[in-house]
Specification:
Length: 515
C-alpha cells in the first residue's frame, strides 16, 4: 500500500569506469526500469563535458577533472547547475533542485586512488565544506554529495581503514556531517584464490535536512552486466536509495492553524497616530470644500481604511497560534532549531562529539527557557494591582501548571493556628500557599510597612462599606442627565477604562491598544 504522505525520489550512484555509447544506452534503460530521478556517475572518462540532454527527461551536468563525474536530475525538479562551487582539478559537480517546495543541493564526486598522499581527498572535502557554507548563506536546507571517495573505514562497514578513510572520518567528526553507505561491498573483485572480495568506497556525505531525507541505501547486483567494464566480476555496483520527502495530504491536515497577527507591543504608535491624522485632515479639508453629504457609514469607512493603512505601515506582524507562549523569543527559536539539528545528527551518527554537542544544546535551551519564563513573570508582577493579580494568576496557571513537566517540589508552611512548620506535598495546598503568599498582599504586612497607614486605610474602607447614603427608593433624581448628549470626555473615559491586554479585536479589527 502506497503511503501518500511521503514522496520517494529514487537516487542511484555508480562508478562506470568509462562512459561509452553502448553504456549510455544501457544506463538509459536502467534509468527507465528503476525510475531513477537522480543519477550520480563517476569515472565517465570524457575529454569534453557531456551533452545536457544525454539521458532523456533529465538534465546532465559534468566536469572532466579526476577522470570526470556527472550528475543527472529529472527535469521536474528544476535542476540548476552551480558552477560557482566547482574548482579546477577537483572532480565534483553540483546542482540545485526543488522537491516538494524544498530546496536542496546534490553533488557527484570522485577522488582517484592512484595518488600517494591524501591531498586529493582533502582538497575535495574542502570543496564540500565550502558548498555547505554556501547552503547556510543562501538558506538552503541540505546538501548531499554522492561519490566514490576511495576511502575505507570500519565506521561505514568496510573490513579495514586506509589513510583516506581516516581523513574522511576526521572530516565528518569535525564538520558535523553524516557518512552513509550500504551494508555490503560497493566495489567487488575476484581474488586469486577464487573468492570474491571488495570494499565499501561508494558513499554519501550529507548535511542539514539531507541527513533526515536520505533513506537506507542498498546494492543492486542484478542486470549490471552492461553498466560497467568487467561486470559482474570486477567493478562498482549501483548504490540505490531514496530521498524521502514528507508531503501534506490536503484531506488530512494535522498541523495547527498559524496566522499572522499584529505585534502591538512593538508598534510605532507615534507615527501610527500621525499617519491617521494626515489622512483624516486631508479628507476633512476636501469634505468641507465640496460640501459633501456622505452617510455616516461612509465616513466611518474612511476612518477604518485610514487605521488599516497606518497599521500595515507601523505595526509589525508576528506568527501566532493558540499554543503561542508570551515569553517566547527569537533567541529561544534559534536554540530550539539548534537543539533539533543536534538531536537529529546524534540520532543518525552516535559519536561522542555529537552526543556532547546534543547534551550542551539541550542544557543551553533549558537554561534559556527558564530565564525567559522568569523574566516574563517579573515584568508582569512589577505593576500589578489586586484585580490584575487575580487575572495574572489565571494566566500563570494556564501557561505553567497545566503540563506534567512543570513540577513544584514540597513547600514549607508555618501559617497555621499552632505556628508549626508543615510540609505541603499536595498540589492544591501548594497552589493556595503560593497564591496567598505572593498575590493577596500579605507581603505588605511586614515590619517595614507603615502599620498606622495600613490601619487607617482599613478603617476608611470599613466606613465606606457601612455608610448609609439615605437614598429614597422613590427618588430617582433628575433623569435629564441620562437623556443628554454623550460628551467627548465620557467617550474618552470609556476608552481608557477598556482592558488593553489579551488578543481580542472588535468587528472592525480595532484593538483596545489602538484606541
Amino acid at each position: 500500500m502506497v503511503n501518500n504522505l511521503y514522496k520517494h525520489v529514487p537516487v542511484c550512484q555508480i562508478n562506470v569506469n568509462g562512459l561509452s555509447s553502448h553504456s549510455e544506452i544501457s544506463i538509459a534503460h536502467f534509468i527507465e526500469k528503476y525510475d531513477i530521478n537522480i543519477l550520480s556517475l563517476q569515472e565517465i572518462n570524457c575529454t569534453n563535458e557531456l551533452d545536457i540532454g544525454v539521458f532523456p527527461g533529465m538534465s546532465t551536468f559534468s566536469v572532466t577533472a579526476d577522470r570526470g563525474v556527472s550528475i543527472s536530475i529529472s527535469n521536474c525538479y528544476s535542476p540548476q547547475r552551480l558552477a560557482q562551487l566547482e574548482e579546477d582539478g577537483v572532480g565534483i559537480v553540483y546542482s540545485l533542485l526543488n522537491i516538494s517546495n524544498q530546496t536542496l543541493i546534490v553533488g557527484s564526486a570522485y577522488c582517484t586512488p592512484d595518488k600517494s598522499t591524501t591531498d586529493g581527498l582533502s582538497r575535495l572535502l574542502d570543496n564540500v565544506k565550502k558548498a555547505w557554507k554556501f547552503c547556510q548563506k543562501m538558506n538552503i536546507s541540505g546538501l548531499a554529495v554522492f561519490g566514490d571517495f576511495n576511502a575505507r573505514s570500519q565506521q561505514w562497514g568496510d573490513r579495514i581503514q586506509n589513510p583516506r578513510g581516516k581523513v574522511l572520518l576526521d572530516f565528518s567528526n569535525k564538520n558535523n556531517c553524516v557518512i552513509s553507505a550500504p551494508p555490503s561491498n560497493t566495489f567487488v573483485m575476484k581474488n586469486s584464490d577464487g573468492t570474491v572480495g571488495g570494499s565499501v568506497i561508494d558513499l554519501c556525505v550529507s548535511y542539514g535536512s539531507a541527513v533526515k531525507l536520505l533513506g537506507d541505501s542498498w546494492i543492486d547486483d542484478t542486470d549490471v552486466h552492461e553498466l560497467f567494464t568487467g561486470a559482474p566480476i570486477r567493478g562498482h555496483l549501483p548504490v540505490m536509495q531514496h530521498l524521502v520527502y514528507p508531503q501534506q495530504n490536503p484531506s488530512s491536515k494535522t498541523y495547527e492553524h498559524v496566522q499572522k497577527v499584529f505585534n502591538y507591543e512593538c508598534a510605532d504608535w507615534s507615527n501610527w497616530s500621525l499617519h491617521i491624522d494626515e489622512i483624516l485632515t486631508k479628507f476633512l479639508d476636501n469634505y468641507r470644500q465640496h460640501n459633501s453629504n456622505q452617510k455616516p457609514t461612509e465616513l466611518y469607512e474612511v476612518l477604518i481604511n485610514a487605521v488599516n493603512e497606518a497599521s500595515n505601515l507601523f505595526i509589525p506582524s508576528k506568527k501566532m497560534c493558540h499554543h503561542s507562549k508570551p515569553y517566547w523569543s527569537d533567541h529561544l527559536s534559534h536554540l530550539s532549531n539548534k537543539l533539533r539539528e543536534c538531536q537529529d545528527l546524534y540520532k543518525f551518527k552516535s559519536t561522542i562529539p555529537n552526543k556532547m554537542a546534543f547534551e550542551k544544546s539541550k542544557d543551553d535551551f533549558k537554561k534559556a527557557i527558564i530565564k525567559e519564563k522568569n523574566d516574563w513573570i517579573h515584568r508582569k508582577l512589577e505593576k500589578l494591582n489586586t484585580k490584575e493579580s487575580i487575572l495574572f494568576w489565571k494566566q500563570y496557571r494556564r501557561l505553567f501548571l497545566s503540563s506534567d513537566e512543570n513540577f513544584i517540589g514540597n513547600l514549607l508552611c508555618d501559617d497555621n493556628p499552632h505556628n508549626q512548620t508543615k510540609i505541603l506535598s499536595n498540589n492544591n495546598d501548594k497552589e493556595k500557599l503560593l497564591f496567598d503568599t505572593f498575590l493577596t498582599g500579605k507581603h505588605l504586612k511586614n515590619e517595614q510597612f507603615d502599620e498606622t497607614h495600613y490601619e487607617d486605610i482599613q478603617n476608611q474602607l470599613k466606613n465606606i462599606i457601612a455608610e448609609d447614603f439615605g437614598v429614597d427608593e422613590d427618588d430617582h433624581g433628575d433623569t435629564d442627565d441620562f437623556n443628554s448628549d454623550i460628551t467627548l470626555s465620557e467617550v474618552t473615559a470609556a476608552i481608557k477604562a477598556q482592558k488593553t491586554t489579551g488578543k481580542s479585536k472588535d468587528g472592525d479589527d480595532f484593538h483596545p491598544k489602538m484606541l
